[in-house]
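Sanity check

After download, print the first record. It should look like this:
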Amino acid sequence: MMKKYLSQICLLFAALGLHALPAYSANAASPPDKKQTAVIAELTRQADAWDKAIVRRDRAAIEANMAEDFRQIGGEGEVETKSSFVDGLVSPKLEIDPYTVEDFEVKLYGDVALLTGRTRMTGRYESKPFKSHYRYTDIYIKRNGKWKIVSVQISKIPQ
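Expected structure tokens:
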């Protein structure tokens, strides 16, 4: 059971990691234009706010960032829905320490954005310490003028 939650946590927080400023965006052939730069800043703020909501277990704020058809694929191939993902994050059994995201990057493809990074996370589950290191990809889609996260996928990095 703890293994499942740790995978969820890794996925969620990889996706939700406290995001640093983006390294680059759009396509690698040209620097981002003014509009792309504004979208990157918006997505960075949104991802950072989502991370903070997760750390404080704010269900309403977490869910507000997510599409209804959200899916997460964990480090061991497990699949979570929006409901099961959020339930795992707001569990009173879970405590996540403040963390940072390294190698953060935003890439834009029209109304789709890929947010990637690497996170080292620590915390406690059922009062037992855990440590996790992973890479993640968060996929955001712009629908009805709002960016929502539709997918999170993490890959564990060996300690």
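If your output differs, re-run the checksum step. Summary of this record's structure: DSSP finds four helices and seven strands in the chain.
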